[in-house]
Amino acid sequence: MSKNKINVAIIGCGRIAGHHCRSIKNIEGFNLVAVCDLVIQKANTFANEFNIQAYDNYKKMFFDNPKINIVVIATPSGMHFEHTIDIIKNHKKHIILEKPTFMKPSQVKEAYQIAKNHNLEIFPIFQNRYNSAVKRVLAAVANNELGKIVCASVRVRWCRPQRYYNLAAWRGTFSMDGGSLTNQGIHHIDLLRKLVGEVKKVSSIHQTYGADIEVEDTAVAVFEFENKAIGSLEITTAARPDDFEASISLVCEKGLAQIGGIAVNELQIFTPNPEDCHKYSEDFSGNVYGNGHSKIYKDIYLYFESKIPYPIDYKDTFNSIKLLNSFYISHENRKWVYLNESMDSSKLGQDNKDLQNMYITK
């Protein structure tokens, strides 16, 4: 790709699409060309705000705008794989992929191979890795400030009532959404790997308490890392009446670190230097997505202009989705699951043609 501006389009105009639009507009080197949603009114909202074109069919969008270089896929999670494959094979575009990337490890593997075959790139979005608090703890782990990690814990206690799931047919389904682990917890699951290392085995149990949905709204798990650290996870959207906590804590030989806040944006405890808690905390009030997306677009631009590798690669994406699926497999089979033997959950990302047909572009 040349030194010319990189042309970007967005498919899927939910709330996150506006954050992408603003991030793209704020980064010199990118040109936001168009947005697309099956519900044209949603696309029109962003088109009017950012003075770009709106479409309800991405095939027409590509026909009208052949110089689009990269496509942001922000459609329902269960459609990410189909949209990625179609856009790579038939339209030859690079992909920026919102969480949880794909539903199954096998989909990650196939999509990256197809992208490689077409000399195209997939850029996953895990924006919380860019948070100052997360980066400070990562540095502390790397430089041995905290010493050997003994145990790690995740606690997400959020509120998603029935009206949240009633907003769209895909919400709260195994085929298109997943539950509290896949939708709300995926960032914390990814950060567990990034902060502590790869997981060796997991045991997980799931229940549904707060809504009439087929997926879990509460999951509790224990696990062992390959480096012998142990961990626990509690993720629920059945907390009432509001969101209360979303934290990751590391108990280590030399001290303790805890990251919390609305989106792991606050360094709440850091015993090596308590003054760093204020220094490395960010105010995300009014912006649950934080500042990571803009930094991601800077890294994507650096990849094309300077060939600096994008920091979230195939292995990262594959291992995070493999760990996610392992929690489901453990619950499905009521047993410990070893990650070196794990692959796809039998439920997560399962086929549901009636739902899928609602979101397919003809």
According to DSSP, the number of beta strands is: 14
SSE order: EHEHEHEHEHEHEHHHEEEEEEHHHEH
Strand order of the largest sheet: 13-12-11-7-10-9-8-14
CATH superfamily of the largest domain: Dihydrodipicolinate Reductase, domain 2
CATH top level of the largest domain? Alpha Beta
CATH topology descriptor of the largest domain: Dihydrodipicolinate Reductase, domain 2
* Sheet with the most strands, sense and barrel status: 8 strands, mixed
| Helical fraction | 25-40%
Question: C-alpha Rg, in Å?
Answer: 20 Å
Could you say what the CATH architecture of the largest domain is?
A: 2-Layer Sandwich
Tally of individual helices? 13
Distance between the termini: 30 Å
Assign the structural class, choosing from mainly alpha, mainly beta, alpha/beta, alpha+beta, or little secondary structure.
alpha/beta
The whole-number mean of residue pLDDT values reads: 96
- Tertiary shape: globular
Beta-strand percentage?
A: 15-25%
Domain tally: 2
